[in-house]
């Protein structure tokens, strides 16, 4: 095991950090590769070409196979992270899968100790915790500089390939890397290092007990994984809310017992429905994966006394007014989750492999675009009709 495996805990909602870490790579090789960059919020993506670096002894250069357009990329593109402006041009993209293109001289295995070599398919954390700050050392929460190699770092800075929207990706020390089992095709793995690992980590943290009534707010990629995982963890009734009929149909295909279209129902009606479906008690667990602040207020109301709330979609700013006494009087547990511990990646891959005949995971990647057509792909993803748009390389 030669890629340092930094094990820390990431469960606190923190700001994307913008501190540069020292570069650690050697001189460029002769090949070059393209990246797609943005120069301003909601701006067109432009292509830039850079020499592909040789990996440092403890690094890997990946040839990208797929990079998805995740909701967080769309938020970043909208300008949600101020740090983005500090290092233009910026490469976005973080939900990705690729093959080992060049491997550092000291890298022999992945983070689980499995042998890896050039040509192997791998999936890896898009973040790189520092390993020595308070949060890394205690394991309590997210390392504040875990995105420092990427967000706010110009693509002009070597090793250039610091984001997923590029033909190559540079995995420096601090990332965790996992070989992909042969049985899992790229389309089933490309959402693993964000959506699937995030839900695996979040749902384990909040816990599900046999028979729990679960409400899931949002039926995008995170919500659909949540249905499968909650079911396999022993959930009883699963109720899913979303505004898009196609997503709700997919939620049913994943096994939701009841779906509610938030555009076609009133708040009160949804609350009454949840109460009716739970013996007038309320849900044991509400999972927020919608990224829409008012869902928080509704989710709290839907919980029974002693209920638990997992919120992982509301990653950008937005305010709501609510009654804190409701949390106290109902003795609720509120858990935020943003990022995950690296072990969630192999756990998510095992989970998908084990249950792939039960859930239509292949439908999570609803639309394919060529990397050349990233602007069309982003525009379509922004409309919100796709579950996941993926860019093919
Ligand atoms: Zn993501
Ligand atoms: Zn740290």
Description of the structure:
The structure is a single chain. This protein starts with 27 loop residues before the first strand and ends with a strand. With 393 residues, the chain is of the alpha/beta class. Strands 3, 5, 6, 7, 8, 15 and 16 form a seven-stranded mixed β-sheet that branches. Helix content is 25%, strand content 23%. The longest helix has 15 residues, at 192-206. It is built from eleven helices and 16 strands. The model is unreliable at 1-23 (pLDDT under 50). Helix 5 (221-232) links the parallel strand 9 (214-217) and strand 10. The structure holds zinc ion (ZN) (2 copies). The site of one zinc ion has 5 residues, from loops.
Give the name of the CATH superfamily of the largest domain. Answer: Medium-chain alcohol dehydrogenases, catalytic domain
At CATH level 3, the topology of the largest domain is Quinone Oxidoreductase, Chain A, domain 1
User: In what range is the share of β-strand residues?
Assistant: 15-25%
Straight-line distance between termini: 29 Å
Poorly predicted regions: 1-23
For the record, the CATH class of the largest domain is Alpha Beta
Largest sheet: 7 strands, mixed
| Amount of helix | 25-40%
- CATH arch. level architecture of the largest domain: Alpha-Beta Complex
What number is the mean pLDDT? 91
Query: Over all CA atoms, what is the radius of gyration?
Result: 21 Å
Overall morphology:
globular
Q: List how many beta strands DSSP finds.
A: 16
